[in-house]
Amino acid sequence: MRTILAAALACLCLSGPAAAASLDEVYDFTVERVTDRVHRIYRPDEGRVQPEGNVTVVEQADGLVVIDTGGTPSAGERVVALIRTLSAKPVRHLVLTHYHGDHNLGAPAFLKAWPDLTLISTAKTRENMLGEPMAYIRDYGKGIGALAPQFAKLAARDDLPEEMRRNWARAARDAEALAVAYEGVTATPALLTFEDRLVLHDAEAPVELLFLGRAHTDGDAVAWLPKQRVLATGDIVVAPFPFAFNAFLGEWMGVLHRLRGFDFAYLVPGHGMVQRDKSYLDRLHSLVGALRDQVGPPAREGLPLAEVRKRVDLERQGALFTGDSPWNKRFFRDWFIGPGTQAAWQEARGEPIVPGAKIQP
């Protein structure tokens, strides 16, 4: 999320007032039934400057398993309220798919509602949540709040497409509300961790928690429900386009291949619509491969990152993810091509990918 804020800051040097949205507007979550015993809680429009991850709710015999939490305590409160409309059963297990805050900063609301729940993640995710990768949250609200007038000024520009002006106006309203929502936020790392596999047994809806390799982060957890044939991937899969901040691109491709081996009927991504076949996985695998193919050779020849960036051309592949939307094209560039090029460059040169590290220009 620190890198998402940095991307939003890029090229913005304007000012102007904006009317704040309410937190109910910012966190306008709704519920979708995925299949028997499984629901997704999500924000209908993910095209916002501050994204909110999907929350998956699984009903077991004696309680609920919930995967991810919402991105602030305020978001978590609204997710908790929706969960209570689905079932009177308590949340027994809360799973954090990775360390990025839009998936885990709602955890305090869950612990307040169900103090006896077990908070679970991979060992690497816990390590990241206890360390420097989460340090950004101390000032994140203040930083995003300061962007509100700049977003408002962009919304007033006559030279931008209507979609861009509309979305910048919404970003301005959201930013002031988010400044309040992030006040005093703290990371809540898991107490129960696993390395490769952890099974939450149940006769009707068992949940297998798996670490399939480094991909979007170095600690991505995947949830597999074999009876319901539901696969919840966290941000290993994101729609309508992926995020690649500090990603492990080569290993990510391997993990996507492993995901394809599951006989799923429903894939719940970290953001975006439920996928009902493997076509999106295939497009994503091809996209990551195309970026590595373009970046790898010049990086290994010793070209600096800034020069390699000039050579990357993913317009044809990107159109499969963004369509004609100028807003999606902008953030595909900022959230996938920009950070993904750096990750591919580092990978090709044998340099380490550091969780939470700053994206270079």
- CATH-derived architecture of the largest domain: 4-Layer Sandwich
The domain count comes to 2
Query: Whole-number radius of gyration?
Result: 20 Å
Note the gap between the termini. 17 Å
Main beta sheet: strand number and arrangement? 7 strands, mixed
The structural class is alpha/beta
* Sequence of strands across the biggest β-sheet: 1-2-3-4-5-6-7
Strand content: 15-25%
Report on this structure.
- This protein has 361 residues and is an alpha/beta fold.
- It folds into two domains: 227 residues, Metallo-beta-lactamase, Chain A (4-Layer Sandwich), CATH 3.60.15.10; 66 residues, no CATH class.
- It contains 13 helices and twelve strands.
- Strand 1 and strand 2 form a beta hairpin.
- Helix 3 crosses helix 4, helix 7 packs antiparallel against helix 8 and helix 10 packs across helix 13.
- The chain is globular.
- The two termini are 17 Å apart.
- About 3% of the residues have low confidence.
Any chance you could write out the topology, listing elements then pairs?
Blueprint: H1 2-9, H2 23-26, E1 30-35, E2 38-42, E3 55-59, E4 64-67, H3 73-86, E5 91-95, H4 107-113, E6 118-122, H5 123-130, H6 140-146, H7 148-155, H8 162-181, E7 192-194, E8 197-200, E9 207-210, E10 222-225, E11 230-238, H9 249-260, E12 266-271, H10 279-300, H11 305-311, H12 315-322, H13 326-349
Parallel strand pairs: 4-5, 5-6, 6-7, 11-12
Antiparallel strand pairs: 1-2, 2-3, 3-4, 8-9, 9-10, 10-11
Helix pairs in contact: 3-4, 6-8, 7-8, 9-10, 10-11, 10-13, 12-13
